[in-house]
Amino acid sequence: MKEGKMIAMLLAGGQGSRLKLLTKDVAKPAVPFGGKYRIIDFPLSNCSNSGIFDVGILTQYKPYHLNSHIGIGSSWDLDRRTGGVRVLPPYTNEQGGRWYKGTANAIYENISFIDELSPEFVLILSGDHIYKMDYSIMLEYHRNKKADVTISVVEVPWEEASRFGLMHVNPDMSVIEFEEKPKKPKSNLASMGIYIFDWKALRRYLIADEKDPNSGNDFGHDIIPKMMNDGKKLFAYQFEGYWKDVGTIKSYWESNMDLLADSNTLDLYDRNWKIYSKNRHLPPHYVSKDASVVNSLINEGCRIEGSLYNTVLFNEIMVGKNAQVVNSVVLSGAVIEEGAEVYNAVVMEDVVIKAGTKIGTKDDTVVYLVSKNKIIES
């Protein structure tokens, strides 16, 4: 065991079925976000910025685009002779092939990988949240508390609390009780799906959990409650920055719109904490003399001849003359033809919105997911 060393295990196999057509062909962590990123860029960049250069990425659902995006990890300075990023898909053993059965089982199946790196601490991350966080500060907190496990938490609105695993804590932030998605929440301190474990302790619990035929092999449902019942030291680490679980079409749209709000706290322009991504090396965007662009993000390769307001454009998008795109997220390769109007929408990749088409209205509260074949209201 290397004293003080922490590695990261990033769970990136989620289907994200509530994102509907956005995850039809890609895993949720590979979904595009913010004009030029994918969701997984945020935890990967956090690892690099936090000085964590041993990262295992556990893939499962439709991993091709995710694997292609990650490559050898060079975009995040994770292409190293010793350490770096490793993609860890499910594999076949003497019992045959099988999927990861749960978050804890995914780590259990890779015990030999972790043992080879011989860390003192293991950081468990989810690959499908939007946030910027220094994991080294959380590790310092974990060590000062002499914790067996530290769980990062964030305050969420009470009306959304039942969607999350919730922590009840003492004034010193030691965990009293953990509730997994209760119907009647008693707390609004939600687990962010970020855990730091002492590896020796976690290893024992993973092996015992795998032998339990009644276990769901999940951290929230099984490992953490068992550790609490055994009197282990569990502490909550309260995160104060921006964090969003983009679990639905509306929350995905909202998190992109947050980037354009005056109150935005997710600073993508912070030179001290950059969010890195794979660069496609496209030409600069072009805005014609007759175009109007207000409060919008525009990525490379776009041609704008119409009007944009409060909109996020990915790359290689065409907005024709007299077209209007308002409060919308438009993914790469889409075409908004002349005179079309688009309000409150997420337009998927390579969709063509024909001339004169109107989607939504200025005062709409509905969010529209626009694919090549249909429009879904969210």
Share in helix: 10-25%
Distance N to C terminus: 49 Å
Average of the residue pLDDT scores: 93
CA gyration radius, whole angstroms: 22 Å
**Major beta sheet summary:** 7 strands, mixed
Assign an overall shape.
globular
Strand order of the largest sheet: 5-4-1-8-13-10-14
Number-wise, the strands total 31
Q: Which structural class do you get from the secondary structure elements?
A: alpha/beta
Question: Helix segment count?
Answer: 8
How much of the sequence lies in strands comes to 25-35%
Contiguous runs where pLDDT drops below 50 for at least 5 residues: none
Organism: Fusibacter ferrireducens
Catalytic activity: alpha-D-glucose 1-phosphate + ATP + H(+) = ADP-alpha-D-glucose + diphosphate
Pathway: Glycan biosynthesis; glycogen biosynthesis
Pfam families: Hexapep_GlmU, NTP_transferase
Could you walk me through the main structural features you see in this protein, from its secondary elements to its overall organization?
This protein has 378 residues and is α/β, with parallel strands linked by helices. Helices cover 20% and strands 30% of the residues. It is built from eight helices and 31 strands. It has a seven-stranded mixed β-sheet with strand order 5-4-1-8-13-10-14. It has a six-stranded mixed β-sheet with strand order 18-21-24-27-30-31. Helix 2 (64-70) links the parallel strand 4 and strand 5. Helix 6 (199-211) crosses helix 7 (219-229). The longest helix is centred in the middle third of the chain and has 13 residues, at 199-211. The chain is globular. The N and C termini lie far apart (49 Å). The mean pLDDT is 93.
